[in-house]
Amino acid sequence: MDKLRAITVFRRVIELGSFKAAAEDLGLSKAAISKNINELEDYLKTPLINRTTRKMHITESGQRYYNHISNILDELTNADLSIIESSHYLRGLIKVSVPMSMGILQINPAICEFMRLHPEISVELTLSDQYVDLVEQGLDVAIRGGGELKNSSLKSRKLLELKRVLCASPEYIQHADKLVTPDDLVSHNCLIYSLSSSPRHWVFRQQDKIKAIDLSPGSYAVNNGLALKQATLAGLGIVLTPEIFVDKEIKSGELTKLLPAWEAEKHALYAIYPYHKEQSQKVRSFIDYLVAYFSK
Question: How many domains would you assign to the chain?
Answer without folding.
Answer: 3
